Amino acid sequence: METVSLEREFIKQLENQEAQYWSDYYICCKSPIQEKLGVSMNIINGAFCFAIAKTGRLAFNRVLGIGLEYEITDQQLKEIINFYKQVGTNRFMIQVSPAAFPENNEELLLRNGFIRYNQWAKSYKKLVNEIEIPESKLNLENLELSNIEEFENVIKLAFEFEYDSHLLISRTYKKPGWKHYLARENGKAIAAASMFFCGKVASLAIGGTIPEARGKGAQSLLIAQRLNDAYKAGCEYVVVETSEDLPDKPSQSYRNIFKAGFETAYLRPNYVYNF
Known about the structure:
The chain is an alpha+beta fold. It is about 30% helix and about 30% strand. The longest helix is centred in the first third of the chain and has 20 residues.
């Protein structure tokens, strides 16, 4: 998997974009869901800490933006560990970008009890024009309030989210900067996606297809539609996070965005802390 060389300020922009849209899931989550799931969020020396006590899923229990505004320190890591301990989750991860200081941060993380777990790929595409939407028998539509439950059901089935954690994803509906989509086959909702706009950058926040409908091109269709919507909104770049594509663990999400013309900006290591 090839990566490209990017300026530190651009990497910071991509990381802050992700932290901003991910924050919306937690900020927009209101009681009783918040209380039921144990949803918490904190900012510790510039690092965004997200937690859901009810689930050990790392995507919901992770730290973003560490080392961007302030250098990573032992004291900061101790405070982060204490935050998650108080929340009550059984594990969490810190995602470290190439822009994080100090550069030799792995030794710092390891000596504080973290283990290197895996990597996520951060990819982006520069927008220069609208693209052609692939021909398909599927129908795309913008999400309407009356179809929220269909959207939530697709997300739940696509990602196998437990304990109603999938409900956080739909809480951003109609919030500033957000757009949500459904793809249907013969009237049935089989795929869902969302996008977050901020300035000149748009994020493909989430996209999933129910298991029995995979391989029909729904995500390629949703990616193309979102690229065009981002271009029309005046965005210059679209960015997305996926798992790393490995020979023994292929990532269909990565392959979908690679096919759509994205480049891998960098691989971001994930360091896990287990309680």
